[in-house]
Amino acid sequence: MVKEAVRPAFRPESALDYMAPHALGELQLTRLKEVVRRAYDNVVQFRARMDERGMTPDDVHSLADARRLPFTVKTDLRDTYPFGLFASPMREVVRLHASSGTTGKPIVVAYTKADLENWTSIMARALAAPGVHEGDVVQNAFGYGLFTGGLGYHYGAERLGATVIPVSGGNTERQIMIMCDFGATVVFSTPSYFLHIIERAQQLGVDLRELPLRLGFFGAEPWTEAMRHHIEEATGIKAFDLYGLSEIIGPGVSVECECQDGLHIFEDHFLAEIIDPETLEVLPDGAEGELVLTTLTKQAMPMIRYRTRDITAILPGQCACGRTIRRHRRIGRRSDDMLIIRGVNIFPSQIESVLLATEGTLPHYQIVLTRERGLDQMEIQVEVTSKVFSDKVGTLEALQKKLADAVEHVLGVRVQLNLVEPSTIQRSEGKAKRVIDRRTS
Fold first, then answer.
1. Fewer CB within 10 Å, N or C, the chain?
2. How many CB atoms lie within 10 A of CB 89?
3. pTM of the prediction?
4. pLDDT tens-place string over residues 19-49
């Protein structure tokens, strides 16, 4: 049973979440003009693209003019590696972070002192929204180092007066020991790694539902409502989505409040748009498309109309919590996660939703892509419970057929589906690797 949620007390950090819309709009416009001017004066690439459009910062008169500005994409950061998009001299840059760089040059991001102060303040607001407060004991299982997640969460929680355990990722048995012995009440993690913690705790005979844990914040990868339900049922905590990306600031762009009804965007720092990823036209609230973000207060490395590749929609109406800042729907997929198999567009999140809704399966799966005689093939490997795997062959065959039929119904294409015993699929201490591509060109 999930522990009963308590409505968070109002905190001074959260006051900006309730700004009057007209005041927020005026603040956003002032900051948009400032950040466009800063990028134009200091970033060669941005100035060149503005010049190509015949635009200068003086052409920004309203928030609607933002849609006339040029886009920024991830390859721009790699093409200008390492410091080509900086808008501050290096003497003002006090911290650098970077992506892992597993697909080429890493993405480098920079922060001034003011940037770090803003980030800490934003993260404090994000964690306060569902109820983190002074006296909480926070176990931070996000990685520290070049990855932005660990330090972003760390300083936000400290700002609220919580006790932070900087355990970082990995060493799962130690994670469980600390969780028990230190009395952690809040946990930060990728959802896939927390699933591994749950699984290992069960193997060790530790019932996480008996611990003081009450809140969990999960991010850095898409996760479904079915995975949330699994986490909450297995641990008794309330599980919240906290969204961000290194290119913008790190974690802290948006967060769910206690209502768990969309993620509130910190609009005084980030201007959000939804575009059609094909036509690049701006879409109205409620329409699904690609999230585009402009940093309104970033000094060292402002991002103007950054294409996140994350697919979502701005939710119409005001949240029941009373916050006036807008919400976006949870990120279920990315446009660049799409697989095309025999002409059909497939997203891993579609498969996950089917698997987690089926009794007898575990929340661990992998998609393996191969090519045979020029045709792409997809195999889905799904772990099942020990009871199911050791049951009669007929039971396994029935479950396999049920899952294969359900996946075909959702995807519109028949794929090979194999059931495997528990612990077959390699566990991740960070983001899960759901797709193994063994195709050769």
1. C
2. 10
3. 0.84
4. 999 999 999 999 999 999 999 999 999 999 9
